[in-house]
């Protein structure tokens, strides 16, 4: 059974995995460039993801982009849980609705339906996927991935008002856009790795050998948000995490999260959370007493 390795380097890849994990309090956040899916048979896990406390309940499929800092801070009545990691590039090529992709890129956590029928089916699927990948990974990986894709397409229906593309239309779309998807993925990952430093559009575009204007347009068309918008969301999420987990002064947190001035930090934080940093810290401490 797996558990978090405190010596693990940040952004070291897991690759495609389907494993049983033992819950342990994590002394620091983990970050890796995969989509992570959790499923619990019983109990609950509480993460600090970005700047939000997120509780994963039993019998509920839950996924998030693991490039966002995530840290288990509490667990109850759970001895093990399933963890699936899917390389981010593979996930993007599945052609899931843009609305679902964008929610994950923004650092949001998505959960599936938790009715008894869905929960029973999901429990069987996770048991089967774990058995397949553990016992015969080379010969089972392809159909496990297809079943995962189908499960996430079902999940996506509740997060998108747009119809899912037919198989033929989706495959044609991916064939025409896969090089662009790869570049959009690299830009998103570059931001996730470097948002604390001084990032400019031209630097992000340079990492994928594109003109800044074209890079900005490509990213917006792929994910439905701007490059600067994603940078800001990462920085605000990091600030939220520090406001919850440290006693540092707000000005120090602003600079640590990548902002170059306190006024810009306060403005961005209010725009994203509808709260001031001081108000956010106070509310979190009141709720966690």
UniProtKB/TrEMBL annotation:
Membrane keyword on record: no
Superkingdom of this protein's organism: Bacteria
Recorded GO MF terms: DNA-binding transcription factor activity; sequence-specific DNA binding
Record carries keyword Cell cycle: no
Ranges for domain HTH araC/xylS-type: 185-283
Entry keywords, A to Z: DNA-binding, Transcription, Transcription regulation
SMART domains with a match to the protein in the record: HTH_ARAC
Pfam families: HTH_18 (PF12833)
Name under which the protein is recorded: Melibiose operon regulatory protein
Taxon lineage: Bacteria, Pseudomonadati, Planctomycetota, Planctomycetia, Pirellulales
Source organism: Rhodopirellula europaea 6C
InterPro entries reported for this sequence: Homeodomain-like_sf, HTH-like, HTH_AraC, HTH_AraC-typ_CS, Tscrpt_reg_AraC-type_HTH
């Amino acid at each position: 059974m797996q558990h978090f390795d405190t010596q693990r380097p940040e952004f070291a890849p897991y690759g495609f995995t389907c494993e049983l994990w033992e819950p342990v309090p994590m002394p620091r956040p983990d970050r890796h460039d995969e989509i992570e899916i959790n499923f619990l048979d019983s109990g609950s896990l509480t993460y600090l993801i970005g700047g939000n406390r997120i509780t994963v309940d039993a019998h509920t499929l839950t996924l998030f982009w693991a490039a966002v800092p995530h840290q288990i801070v509490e667990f109850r009545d759970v001895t093990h849980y399933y963890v699936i990691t899917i390389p981010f590039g593979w996930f993007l090529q599945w052609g899931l609705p843009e609305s679902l992709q964008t929610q994950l890129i923004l650092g949001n956590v998505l959960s599936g339906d938790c009715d008894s029928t869905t929960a029973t089916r999901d429990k069987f699927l996770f048991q089967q996927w774990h058995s397949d990948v553990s016992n015969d990974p080379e010969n089972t990986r392809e159909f496990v991935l297809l079943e995962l894709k189908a499960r996430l397409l079902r999940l996506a229906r509740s997060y998108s008002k747009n119809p899912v593309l037919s198989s033929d239309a989706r495959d044609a779309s991916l064939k025409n856009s896969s090089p662009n998807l790869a570049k959009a993925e690299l830009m998103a990952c570059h931001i996730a790795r470097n948002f604390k430093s001084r990032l400019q559009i031209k630097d992000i575009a340079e990492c994928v050998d594109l003109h800044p204007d074209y890079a900005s347009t490509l990213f917006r068309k792929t994910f439905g948000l701007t490059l600067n918008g994603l940078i800001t969301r990462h920085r605000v999420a990091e600030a939220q995490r520090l406001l919850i987990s440290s006693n540092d002064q707000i000005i120090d947190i602003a600079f640590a999260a990548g902002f170059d001035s306190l006024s810009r930090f306060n403005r961005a934080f209010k725009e994203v959370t509808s709260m001031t940093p001081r108000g956010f810290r106070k509310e979190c401490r009141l709720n966690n007493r």
